[in-house]
Amino acid sequence: SEITRTVEISGEGGPLGIHVVPFFSSLSGRMLGLFIRGIEENSRSRRDGLFHENECIVKINHVDLADKTFAQAQDIFRQAMKLQSVILEVLPPYNREQYEKSAIAPLCFLDNEEGVAKTKIPPPVHPKPALKTINLSGASSLESGVQTTLQQAKSPNLPRLGRKSSSPSLSPLMGFGNKKNAKKIKIDLKKGPEGLGFTVVTRDSSVHGPGPIFVKNILPKGAAVKDGRLQSGDRILEVNGRDITGRTQEELVAMLRSTKQGETVCLIVARQEEAFLPREL
Questions:
Q1: Does 184 have pLDDT greater than 70?
Q2: Is residue 71 helix, strand or coil?
Q3: Where are the domains of the chain?
Q4: First-last CA distance in the chain
Q5: Contacting residues for 278 by C-beta, under 8 A, at least 6 apart
Q6: Tens of pLDDT along 12-23?
């Protein structure tokens, strides 16, 4: 397409010498590909001018990386590099916003029933329970409630979410209140000039006290995307050795925001490996 450029390489030419992290859309939170964070000096990529920092690989041998997990995208890349010829579609930084908008377009404009069946769309989200989202990049604004991104489509294949716990996309995330069957991961993030670079989400406090707090999105700039380990859907358990169970989202955000630039935040998160996590809340 005009938005991306095609790079054709030989899989037999040795390692490329690039460092990649997940490329999440800043508009929808969808995983769209692999973000090239760094290129090693004296590497094949640097020598042949194959890639540049801050570009994104969005297709590998015509396989679209949208909505793949980071592990799946890496595996597709590894398998492709065993072939004689590898064709990559690369997104330059100056076209990123246009590409992210084009990735949302198929979700919003459906011409007919056939279009509904062929297009991967998240089910419409019922506006209860309300979700509060806080951006940790330094802004102090709160988004309250859930944005309903799609009107109810006239398709029998799409679930209607009027009843509690009938949502296939929200229930694994919001129901991930217990710590069983979850892998604990320790992540240290050094706060730089662009902040920690992720947003968090939770349910409104219920009669049982504040609900669990999850990572909603990894922003395109900040400590989280540079580190590459924190993922959307991770449940935050501890901050700097302090258990946050029972704490409100505002208390968690206050802890994180109190970290000064140059200091490191130690997070313990729980991750369910197999859970289907929503692309958009």
A1: yes
A2: helix
A3: 5-104, 183-271
A4: 29
A5: 122, 169, 170, 173
A6: 777 888 999 999
